[in-house]
Structure formats: C-alpha cells, structure tokens
Amino acid sequence: MATSAPMASSARSETTRAESGWAGPGFVEFVALMALMMGLTAVTIDSFLPAFPAIQHDFAVQDPNRLQLLVYVYMLGFGTAQLLYGPVSDGIGRRPALIVGIGIYLAGSVLAMLAPSFEVLLLARAIQGIGGAAGRVLAVAIVRDRYEGRDMARVMSFCMMVFLIVPILAPSMGGAVLVVGSWRLIFGVMLALALVTLAWFGTRLPETLHPAFRRPVSARAIGSGIAVTVRMRASFGYATALGLTTGCIMGYVGSAQAVFDTGLYHLGPLFPVAFALIAGAMGVATLINARLVRRLGMRRLAHAGTLGLFLAACLQLALILAFAGKPPLWLLIVTLAACQFLMSFAMPNFNALAMEPLAAIAGTASSFIGFYTTLLAAFCGLLVGQSFDGTVTPLALGYCALSGLALAMVLWTERGRLFGSGAR
User: Which region holds residue 117: left if phi is over 0, alpha if psi is between -120 and 50, else beta?
Assistant: First the structure.
C-alpha cells in the first residue's frame, strides 16, 4: 500500500500531459459519449418495462413476479462480466475491449428479437448484460484516465445527469414502440442505439490508456489489482455504499410495473409519466451536484445526500404504514422522488471517491467495483422486488433498510466522522 501515493501522483502527471495534447472530442461531446455508453444499460432495463404484460401474454407466464427476472438476469450477466472488461482493457486498451463488448450486446439483442420462448428471452437478456457491462466499466475507466478528484466527480455528475434522462424517456419510448409494433421491436431499438454507440466511439474517441499504465492480462495481475481495491478502506467502503443505494433503485425498477400498472394503481398508458416524474428528480439533483462539487467537495455532498436519504426513507415508511401500504398516488410519487433526489447527491460521488485512490489500476478497479456494486444492488433489489405483496410497504422497507446500511458504511469508511474531510 505504500506505493499508492506515488502511483496516484504519477497518474495525475500523466493525466495533465494527456490533457495538453488531447486530440479527442471536446468536453461536452466527451460527456455525452460517456453518458451514452453508460445509458445503454438504462435503455436496456427501462424501455421494455411497459412490455411486461405483452411478454406475459405471449409466453403464458403465470406468475407476474417472474417477469422481474428479465431485469435481474440482465443485471447478473452485467455484474459478472464487469470483472473481466477492466483488467482486459488495462492490458489491450479501452477501445478494443469496448468494441468486443458492444459486439456481444448486439448478439444478445438479435437473439431477444427472435426469442421463441421466455427461457430463451432470459438467455438473451443475460447475453445483453454481458455485453452491456463493457460500457459501464470502460466509461468510468476512461473518465479516470482523463480526470481526477473534484474534476472527475464533476464529469461523473454530468454523465449521470445525461444518463438519468434516459429513464425519463425510455418507458415512453417503449410505450410508443408498442403502439406501432410488438415488444420485439423494442429490442430492435436497443440494437440501433448500440450501433450508434459503436460508430460514435470508433470514429471520435482515441485510446485514453497511457502506455505507461498498461498491465499484463493475467490472473495474478487481476488478483493483485482486486486485492489493492479491497484493502483500500475508502474504495471498498464507498463501493459498498454505492451498491446499497443502487439496490434501492433496483428494487424500485423491479417493482415499478407492478406498483404503477398491473398490481396497485393501474395507470396503464400513464405509467411512463409516473416513472418519468420520479426519474426527473434524479436528473435535477445530479445537475446541482455537478455545479456544487468543485466548491463543496465530494465527501460533503455524498455524506449530506446519504444522511438525507435515510431520513427521507424513514419518513416515507412512516407515511406508507399510515395508509396500510396503499398511499395516495401523489404521496408515493413525492416521497419516492425526494428519496431519488437525495440519493443522486451520493451516488456519483461514491463512485468518484471509490475510484480516486486507484489511478494506476483504473481498469481493474472499475471492473471490480462495478462487479461488486452491481451484484450487491441486484441481490438487494431482487429481495425487495420479489417481496411485492400488493402494497408498497416492501419497497418502503427496502429503501429504509438499504439507506441505513449505506449510512453505516459511510461512517465505517470515515471512522465515525461525517463532513470532516471536505478537501475532496
């Protein structure tokens, strides 16, 4: 661990040199491309939520909760594959690793369009997840190749802001596709977006990994990088907090169709509107975070967001219990939007804080952190989603428990202190 500071210092000097001779896209285009790479995952999850009833009908799925597996099997493939892309990209570069990942995603999308059964559709979703993992891992690694500290947090916030516009639009897009075609056409849209991403990345973004930071692709090198990440208290602690807060989102996404459409409020075509209102709160918060992070620092904003989320989740639970698990729709939307708003001050900064000490192994670190946080989030989200019982009580309990655990992890990471390390 004694080499961490020199490695980080070396990374900073390399970043400065890379910035001075950067031949790639400008800041706005760079952020948009990174957001698209990350946002392909949101499209893959959210755009086909309105198609659940049609899929259930076509494949005669008896248990509607089983449809949630289409979300979680994607996340399983997505989480597991992340463990590979970073170390591979540390050895061969970011560009070839991403091209391979998008190719796998394209294959999964084609299989989903042609799936003859629910089981084959689940397989296609897993393949999509394996391919889609490349965008998530390599976007973070590429940002870390170019930026550090508060600048990295600012870029990640802008990426998250653009990325979070996708959940606002994706269900509406899926609903619009269902008006003119079948649910299979939604996977055709995913296919087209992946081709756009591949073309944009391939023609506009040069290799960002400096030759000095290339590492051999071997089990020993990967194991060494993972060991450094796990032993780094800040990296492991903030990654765990990120996984727990993301688990809230996964529980919400898994439950959303049942809560707003088929099981409780029966919104029908208005389901995307409710989904968009809640996701919009996250977009606003990430924009505010991007503007404040340089002045206030990552820790202050992350700590305030986590503490606020826990308090809001406790209030939400109390209100929902007062209505026996079936609150008025407006109250549920307001409380969920408040939780998502506060969460969005924590998540981008958790990601940046976890990556900050790991410049020299950015690819491997991004891979492991992505793998770990995704599987943790998927497991927590699955527990919450599968607990749906016709009320929103399980969802409120999930938010309260997971945000409380995230706050506990932040306290552990900072040795019991909040807001005390504002330099970053």
Answer: beta
